[in-house]
Amino acid sequence: MNKRYITIALTLLSLTGYMQNVAFASETASDGAAGPANQTYVFDEYDDDVICENLEEASVAMDHAKESSTLLLKLAENMDGYSLDSSGNENRPIYSKKIGIIDIGRIQVTIPSASKYADVINTIWDYNDKQKLDDIFIIGYLARVYTPFLVIMEHGNIHQTARTLRKRCAVAAKIKVSNDTTVIVCPTRTINFFGSIVKKTNMIEFFEVTRRIKTDINAEEALVKLCSNIAGYIIKHRDDSVEVTYINAIGEFRNYNNNKRDRDIAYTNILNLAKNI
Q1: Over the stretch 150-182, which tens digit does the pLDDT of each residue have?
Q2: What's the CATH code of the domain at 8?
Q3: Which residues, other chains included, contact 111 with Cβ-Cβ below 8 Å and sequence gap of 6+?
Q4: How many domains is the chain built from?
Q5: Is 81 left (phi over 0), alpha (psi -120 to 50) or beta?
Q6: What span, in angstroms and rounded, lies between the C-alpha atoms of 232 and 57?
Q7: Which residue range(s) make up the domain with 217?
Q8: Nearest in space to 127 (alpha carbons), one of 157, 168, 172
Q9: Cα 123–157–164 angle (5° rounding)?
Q10: What is the spatial distance between Cα 17 and Cα 67, in angstroms, rounded to a whole number?
């Protein structure tokens, strides 16, 4: 493996501010620290053309992921205004509510074994699991890797005509908030970039013109002003269990029906996770 990639990974993990306060979740449930040996090994799994060497861009991507993580945590704080899904299936504890044109869906499951915390995290964070064919949580094509826990995923079919195919690019991240809480940000908050990411693509300007999440207002108002889809998993290590809360907010605009379909698939995957892990 080229030494410059090791340097990039270690520099990212030692950045001040966000990287110190919200460390990336590790592959184990012990202390969350991913050592250099592990970083070197994991980077060997990626093709050279998807690895980003631009530390400034990686830092901007981190801030983007942090905003999404913070909003998801705030949205998960209470159940005010939610109603049980009208499907009437008591085995699918799905809740929803509407705020303007934003449709928020929520499901929470409990795995009755605290020792499964790391397994749950790794099962959901599956974007690079080439052996997994069913119950995939992180959907899309890998377009860029900053670290194994911060990537850009690419989706097609956001808007298609006879002459063009526009792709949606979005950040996915696995973030350790504390020793007992991990947030997995799914690739749904769209970056203001449509096209294919190649090695020389500089994403900084596209991150900068993508709408920011307001932090000085309440979470629901911030979500409405964001006017973009956002989704993620909040995974908590309890005394004798693991609690998984999935929040998925989608706007009633372009691609709404496809987004609802994808959300329903995620619900099914979560319920299967609770049964099978």
Answers
A1: 999 987 654 444 344 567 899 999 999 999 999
A2: 3.30.530.20
A3: 120, 241, 242, 243, 244, 273, 274, 277
A4: 1
A5: left
A6: 22
A7: 3-276
A8: 172
A9: 145
A10: 14
